[in-house]
Predict the 3D structure of the following.
Amino acid sequence: MSRVTVISIAASATLLIYILEMVRRRRLREEYSILWLFGSALILVLSVKQDWLDRLARMAGIAYPPSFLFLVGILFILLILIHFSIAISKLHQMNKKMAQELAMLKSRLGGDP
C-alpha cells in the first residue's frame, strides 16, 4: 500500500467521522451534511478500491490514478461551493424581503421609515 493511499484513506475516514460527529452534536444540519458524507465516502471507497480508481483514471485519460482522486475531491468541493452559494442567495432574498416588510410596517405605524 503506497503512502498516497494511506494518506487518502486516513483523510477521508477522518472527514467522514468528523462530519458524523458534527451532525450528532447538532453543529451541522443534516441537509448540509449529505454532500459532505457522500463526497468523503466516495473518496474513501476509491482510496480502498485501487482497481476501481485505476479503471476510472484510465477511462478519464489520467495516467496517475491518485490525480483522479484529487480531481474528484476538487469537483466535490466545487459542488459544495455551488450548493452553499445557492443557500446564501436564498437567505439574502429572504432577509431583503423581511427588511422591506418591516420598513412598510413601521411606515404604517407612523414610525421611522
Notes: Residues 65-108 form the longest helix (44 residues). The chain has a mean pLDDT of 89.
